[in-house]
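We store chain and fold; thus.
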Amino acid sequence: MPEASSATQSRAIAVRPMLPLWAAVLVAVAAGLILDLAYPSVGWWPLAFVGVGLSLVTLIGRSAWGALLVGFVFGITFYLVHIVWLNRYLGVIPWFALAFAATIYVALGSVLIALAYRWMPRAVPGRWAQLVLTPLLVAGLWVLRELVTGSWPYTGFPWARIGMSQSESPLSHLTSWVGVTGLSFLMVAFTAGVIEWLRLRRWSDIRTALPVAGLGVVLLITPQFPTTPAGTMTVGSVQGNGPSGYFDARQRNDILNAQLSASTDLIGQDMDVLLWPEGGIDSDPLTNATTAAVLDSLSEAVDAPLLVNAATTRGDLTYNTSILWEAGEGAVQYHDKTHPVPFGEYVPDRWFYEMIVPDLIGLIGREYTPGSNPPYVDIDGTGVGLAICFDVIYDDVIHDGARDGAEVYMFQTNNADFRNTDENLQQLAFARMRAIETGRSVVNISTVGTSQVIGPDGATIDSLPADEAGAMLTDVPLRSGLTPSIVIGGSLGVAIALLSIIGLVASGIIASRRRT
């Protein structure tokens, strides 16, 4: 086919919806349900491509209002299923509110993607533009949507990025090169490229398959970036399985006592540090002399420093704090949680939300202040990166720890409010991706599970079952050297977002001029 004829075909395809609106709505529902299956607990990672592909098909040739509708249907279906665990203790209102807020971004981003499908083939006609430029622009706009969702408002909710679905797949190694954001971009670009190749219907011309085939090869065979072995560290980690849920019935120090009881098997063992989970202490050891004495005794008994966590108060401010504790010296280093959870650990604009749901907001009495100290401690010369609970989903926390010199990560979390749900497995998948991304081992310890020690390659080294008290004593591999993902950091996502905005605006301007 001559190039002029190919250009005409590209323009014709660009304005023709692949599905009628009623069918697109039904496919959007299916896309949301299928995409959720790519994440734990099911974890069928190839379905991420199916879910993304179906959602893109609903947007091709769609009007702005039509894209808004099918994008909303896709988003609300996905999020209501994906974060249904939020309903476990907090009820229907927070579940629906968070799902709806995230869906607004999905719907608005769907409009941009629909415009990309409309404008790019008109702005740059021809089969190669359709096979290369359109998929890249669509993928960039998808990433833009993920970045906005994950950063605004109130620090955002970067929980369900497409790249995070691949913790158990061979594609996970790419995160060591381009991070989770880059993996999302490549996955969506590949999916969009397959769709465009099928739409072009030039299957007999093998050259048309080269762009998407090349990207597929990159996805499948790129090895993990190697980091340098730096010895081992013996870590004792304890899952107390105490009554640490927000609404659990308990007496003072019940959680502390559960952690102490589960730690007894480690007394007399050689270790470099004893790790406890988030919320493993009921009272503030910085101000409570009795609690401080208990920690001193435990540190002496195991002959090692403790890495523990508690709510601490300094002046009028309260923090969620990881504390490195040494017998006789107390808190020698600490890190305050960087991103307290909005409506969980603090209430932004409390005056406003109290007017809407005063009873629910009233349950959140403690107001955690964001920390400004590094997510890092030095334990006898070994750098340890930290992330407290949901901070594991924020790139800046993980990247800062590696840049500060972390040779291993220790993640402390409290999943007690989400027992018997997918939440703890989804969060564990994030921890696994962080190990692969940084090329460092991760000790992920929870109050109630699932707790695991994960190697630099993402393999499970040691584990404890959920809802059981227990302890691990593990020789954890250490690594040095920064992966490209850490070196590049957030600049890759910013570059993708900016270039996508520029590309969409430019294609719109050029397409409008070509029409006139």
In short: The first helix runs from residue 3 to 14.
